[in-house]
Amino acid sequence: MAKLEKDKKVLIRIENLKKYFPVKKPSLFDREALYVRANEDVSLDIYEGETLGLVGESGCGKSTLGRTLLQIYDQTDGRTIYYGLDIDELAPKYVSDILKRLPSLGNKLKELQKKENDTLKTYEKLPEGKEKYQALEKYREAEKEYRTLLLDVTQLIGGLIVADDLSEVSRVAMKEHETSREAFKIRKKIKEENVLIEGKVLTLQEEGKKLEEIETQIKSQKNKVQEWEKELSKLEDKIKDIEKEIEVLRDKYRNHPEFEKYDKNRDKGINLARLTENEARLLRKDLQLIFQDPYSSLNPRLTVGQIISEGLYAHKIFAKNDKSVQDYIIKTMEECGLAPYFIHRYPHQFSGGQRQRIGIARSVALRPKFIVCDEAVSALDVSIQSQIINLLLDLKEKEDLTYMFISHDLSVIKYISDRVGVMYLGNIVELAETEELYSRPMHPYTEALLSAIPTTDPDHKKDPVILEGDIPSPIRPPSGCKFHTRCKYATEICKNVLPEFEEVVPGHFVACHHKINLDKIEPAEVKIAK
Ligand SMILES: Nc1ncnc2c1ncn2[C@@H]1O[C@H](COP(=O)(O)OP(=O)(O)OP(=O)(O)O)[C@@H](O)[C@H]1O
Known about the structure:
Keywords: ATP-binding, Coiled coil, Nucleotide-binding, Transport. The chain is 48% helix and 14% strand. It has 18 helices and twelve strands. An eight-stranded mixed sheet has the order 6-7-8-3-9-10-12-11, with helices on both faces. Strands 2-1-4-5 form a four-stranded antiparallel sheet. Helix 4 packs antiparallel against helix 5, helix 10 (304-314) packs across helix 11 (325-335) and helix 10 (304-314) packs parallel to helix 12. The longest helix is centred in the middle third of the chain and has 43 residues, at 211-253.
């Protein structure tokens, strides 16, 4: 049986992610600012080691989601939390922005909570009808606003949000953060200096220098590193002392009735959307993108070796004078099915499939944790597609990678994915483990997509569910459930109320007022879900 979601480790958590692209106004006199709502309110956990497939018709926002979560596009709203690195190790600046303002944020939270309660009361009092639907939208907005700020704050200080004196919490937490930040800077210096030393040693060895001579030449650099290590260890001791101070504060409030509730939000994830340019650069090697088009994504003026080494130098994995980089590149090329003698060739000398292998080698050389593969095989012949897919699956096992695999091809998605998310007009409308989704789709849109897969099996002839009409405009999407204009099950509620993204059975989420295939659910499964 598949592992339950809660047993798995989250690598990236996306909450209420929104990406709007501004549209140029047709005329100066147009008052309304228009946006393409490419992603709207997407919430999703991506688990370590999984391949998460993303399907949906062209223009539904798959590429935008992949790029926004990698922060290639600035996200308009929402939270994207990365768990591949501990927040204390990076100590990003946004943490101090929150911690410094704790007392005023505490007041703001109270205001937002009141607004949430008030809008809920208004909604509950109203009779069925249009006004009630509008009140529901308002309540949901207020709830989201409160929840986002609450998570931003409690992720850092947990249950301490209940403290009577938030300025005291702010003072101690800031002290810890500032010390962690100093430690982070020193750790970075040590790492970079060690890369330089390693490169120098290898060069001197190649020049035939004796061990003693090499030692003399790198002595001052090594001494510098030793000094920094001493400084670092002092800072680490200081952090331990501050942690004890924080524990004392936590003990003081531990018995507060709401402490536990808020403390559950405390974790070490990093909010990618709030990093500075420099901080984001440090994480960029962890989070990679493989494009659809293997032609335009490779610089035609660089050889394969140069293409792969660019990132290795930029991320200071190798020093520029380090001769061992060549061996490393050849090893990576071989892993990706490229012959070592290709290293001096240019992209135009390769076929599409080989070019895609070069793109993959360039990414995996950085030892990333997460890769978005955006239509990575769509431009290739079918026989080459399967080679590249198998290469990706192979690398995933070897390198402990996690993928988001974007494709409009449902057969490819079925083959490669552990779980699948179905997108429609900017929203994820259904998400489940692959087998579950393909055998028991609960959203009418998924049903329609699946029924359109060609089959050669005469015993399982399917009647395709025809999707009526075109995809509506993402600039002015339909009200309520965006799919209602094309859905054969749609009723009045669908036109007015956005359906919640609900977990129907463990791990199977659907946003629909008239879920289908519910008769295929065993009573025992529902019990587990509750
Ligand atoms: N840079 C941009 N500026 C303005 N609008 C954009 C931009 N990128 C995407 N869009 C719009 O956002 C919506 C979602 O596009 P996106 O490329 O994410 O969809 P997709 O599902 O990946 O489609 P496809 O499979 O065709 O690439 C579309 O309406 C698209 O026109």
